[in-house]
Task: inverse folding
């Protein structure tokens, strides 16, 4: 939910909120739990077809006061261009998005007059920063940089598996768990036993953990494990699994590759280590969460 702008009207309608200033000239609309979850680029492509875009500003990546990921983008264009040609009505829009787990909320500011462009953009950013989803501590989607050129597929909600361009000839894959809340009151390093949910695959575990290596990526520390598995196609594989934690969350992921060719210097392991190094710790709630994110997520 968003706050009410002082002196603006507050009109609940069509599953959302519409606000307008006393003198008109602008409108701000809010919708919550919009599905499906999409990237900002996809959302922009699906906007009102009557609105002809003339310019799109950079996508600003934000964190709300609750620690939720968000984005704001300014769009300029014209509305209702005549069919036979001619000039439409110029409009400026500021679009804000707050990303939940499998949905997003949106704040759409429309400036109908040139002198309202600045105020509308400022209000959209403030409403996004101060929005209240009240989702609390929960398993959450991670922010990291996926392997360049690889394709992603989600087998389970919030999980993501990445495949190289020549998959399935090359059966290598990297699967990333959602971040899991760390056990309350437990200060021990991350361990295999902290995982409360299984992997999103039908692979059969053949061997016990054969090696445990302490690792650290940024502020997160933990261990890497080597497991012998048989995949869904009855192929012998090696699963290299990392379980990391900071003071709030546990981050788990794994790399699968052919057992016959797996080695300490193969490309799959290098890609996996690069992905681990790019993990962004989930932000905590803070009144000063206004910084931009340096890394990309599924939504940006």
Result:
């Amino acid at each position: 939910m968003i706050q009410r702008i002082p002196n603006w009207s507050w009109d609940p309608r069509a599953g959302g909120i519409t606000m307008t200033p006393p003198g008109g000239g602008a409108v701000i609309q809010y919708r919550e739990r919009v599905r499906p979850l999409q990237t900002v680029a996809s959302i922009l492509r699906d906007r009102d077809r009557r609105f002809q875009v003339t310019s799109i500003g950079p996508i600003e990546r934000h964190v709300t006061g609750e620690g939720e990921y968000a984005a704001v983008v300014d769009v300029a264009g014209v509305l209702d261009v005549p069919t036979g040609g001619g000039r439409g009505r110029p409009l400026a829009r500021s679009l804000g998005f707050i990303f939940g787990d499998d949905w997003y909320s949106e704040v759409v500011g429309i400036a109908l007059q040139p002198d309202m462009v600045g105020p509308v953009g400022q209000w959209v950013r403030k409403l996004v920063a101060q929005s209240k989803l009240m989702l609390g501590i929960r398993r959450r989607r991670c922010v990291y940089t996926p392997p360049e050129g690889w394709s992603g597929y989600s087998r389970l909600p919030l999980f993501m598996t990445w495949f190289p361009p020549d998959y399935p000839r090359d059966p290598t894959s990297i699967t990333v768990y959602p971040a899991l809340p760390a056990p309350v009151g437990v200060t021990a390093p991350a361990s295999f036993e902290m995982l409360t949910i299984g992997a999103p695959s039908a692979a059969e575990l053949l061997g016990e953990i054969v090696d445990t290596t302490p690792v650290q990526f940024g502020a997160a520390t933990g261990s890497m494990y080597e497991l012998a598995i048989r995949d869904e196609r009855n192929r012998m594989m090696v699963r290299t699994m990392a379980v990391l934690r900071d003071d709030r969350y546990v981050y788990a992921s794994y790399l699968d590759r052919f057992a016959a060719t797996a080695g300490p210097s193969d490309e799959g392991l290098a890609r996996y280590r690069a992905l681990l190094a790019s993990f962004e710790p989930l932000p905590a709630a803070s009144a000063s969460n206004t910084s931009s994110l340096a890394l990309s997520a599924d939504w940006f």
Q: What stands out?
A: The chain has two domains: 11-129, 151-277.
